[in-house]
Amino acid sequence: MLKPQTSPTRELVNLDGLWQFAVDPGTPHTLWQATLDTTLEAAVPASYNDLFADPAIRDHVGWVWYQRTVRVPRGWAGERVFVRLDAATHEGVVYVNDTKVAEHVGGYTPFEADITDVVTAGQEFRLTVGVNNELTNTTIPPGSITVTDDGGRKQDYLHDFYNYAGLARSVWLYSAPAVRVTDLTVMTDVDGATGVVGFDVETTGADTVQVTLRDVEGTVVGSAEGIAGVVRIDDVKLWQPGAAYLYTLTAQAVVGGEVVDEYTLPIGVRTIEVRGMQFLINGEPFYFTGFGKHEDTAVRGKGHDNAYLVHDFQLMDWIGANSFRTSHYPYAEEVMEFADRHGIVVIDEVGAVGLNLAMGGGIFGGQTKLTFAPENINDDTQATHAQAIRELVDRDKNHPSVVMWSITNEPASNEPGAREYFEPLVNLTRELDATRPVTFVNVMFANHEADLIADLFDVICLNRYYGWYVDSGDLAAAEQKLEAELIGWQEKFARPLIMTEYGADTVAGYHSIYDAPFTEEYQTSFLDMYHRVHDRVEAMIGEQVWNFADFQTKNGFARVDGNKKGVFTRDRKPKAAAHALRARWTGLKK
């Protein structure tokens, strides 16, 4: 889905701000039928959970409602008019006045509706958005709902981050011509010093399409005509990690010799290849340094914030990180665009976390039932998962920063049914995009001897916590076990390995002369131990610490004010480990 933009043929109105807000009292919901009777206002974009001083809102399970009045610009007469939501977590429904115009399941990808026939240029309409935060065994991510003794509803889930919900990303009103560009796919390659840009354009009935490529100075470096083709760039400047170069591709829909629509896309020319135990970008071995992250800040929850976007990327640059994983869901498109512009490499992950009934909230074992079973993770879950992959690839396929698709985090890949569940999804991902490797993130329970699916993937990502959940406080024993397992993976699969999670909960300001768990000294020693092992294993092509910053988790005895594995605090203050990582990563040569 193309992101809305302003162009000579398109206009865009941002609908962010304060919206009327109400919690739905129950089903069937009817609050959309009139002006919301509420004194509450909620910020958009933001999760709603931490905005109010009311635990009933924070812990609400079910639908909430946002509403505002919107005026269609009077100059849009004769144009198609659309409303677009960058995300609604986890299910959304949209009404224009009393007409339902859109509904969507999946909390981290966009959806839109053509509302031309129910609005009038120059006039106002009532825009109402319902958002449902419920997670079940057939949603991605999954969860379960129980009814308490007092008749309340309680949401549970198997991922270790808080189930923030609401309109966490922007809402837009935009116009476009009836005949327009509806999709654009770009594939890049290199032939010697020449860049090769393949394109595929979809329209709503244009006679033809004109494609033009310009460099950063605006000079035309290539052009072509047709809905599909190739443009070659002499003396191409490549998009490189840490040194981004973006060309501008403009696609013009033409009818009767006249340009009726124009869409512009920044593109980077680069190649990706997995060769043996190496990951190559532009033919050169690449070693991933960076983090698993979260979209998580105080008050906003998962609400996108450009100030935090800039600051987080500045901290990653300061520490020497060249990459991150969108753990455990697609991030806001602004994040991907920023990575494109600044040469940050991204492992792009779908929201399939918690497909493992042995996890017990992410840190404890105690499996009592099979994960892949008709009553648990089943065919309906798989269909939802497949749709989430389709929407992720459709949204992010043109980002040069995205070098790999991750289709799940810590699934029960050692259990019966895992291969039958995941093999079709791997095949689907490759059908949707044959230009990028496909990976998954393996959990500790499913080591190289027990895992049933790793051979399906191009790169194997590992989350390991030797020295924390296993052998806590005994880094010598942890080092031996970690190295033995990594060598086992290398010998069995002979393909690239990335450590996508390794870390220890750390209370900022807690110190000891000993390697005592939860101290800043232990976190630093823990990471140093992993790095020694990484440097001794040939197949290791990257390390992404868990986590960039402390983040909020669900209530419970296992966490005190969230997960504290960040090398930065939740408000982005460095712990001692941040300085140790900076020393390693700014000088790392591997």
TrEMBL record:
**Glycoside hydrolase family 2 catalytic domain location:** 272-589
What parts of the sequence cross the membrane?
none
Q: Where is the Glycosyl hydrolases family 2 sugar binding domain?
A: 14-177
EC no. given is 3.2.1.31
**This protein's record includes keyword Hydrolase:** yes
Q: Known Pfam families for this protein? A: Glyco_hydro_2, Glyco_hydro_2_C, Glyco_hydro_2_N
Domain (Glycoside hydrolase family 2 immunoglobulin-like beta-sandwich): give its ranges: 179-270
The UniProt entry, under PROSITE patterns, shows: GLYCOSYL_HYDROL_F2_1 (PS00719), GLYCOSYL_HYDROL_F2_2 (PS00608)
Q: Which InterPro entries does UniProt cross-reference here?
A: Beta-gal/glucu_dom_sf, Galactose-bd-like_sf, GH, Glyco_hydro_2, Glyco_hydro_2_AS, Glyco_hydro_2_cat, Glyco_hydro_2_CS, Glyco_hydro_2_N
Q: What are the record keywords, sorted?
A: Glycosidase, Hydrolase
Alphabetical list of PANTHER family matching this protein: BETA-GLUCURONIDASE
Tell me the NCBIfam families matching this sequence: PRK10150.1 (NF007538)
| Homology family | Belongs to the glycosyl hydrolase 2 family.
- What is the name listed in the Swiss-Prot or TrEMBL entry for this protein? Beta-glucuronidase
Q: Which organism is it from?
A: Agromyces humatus
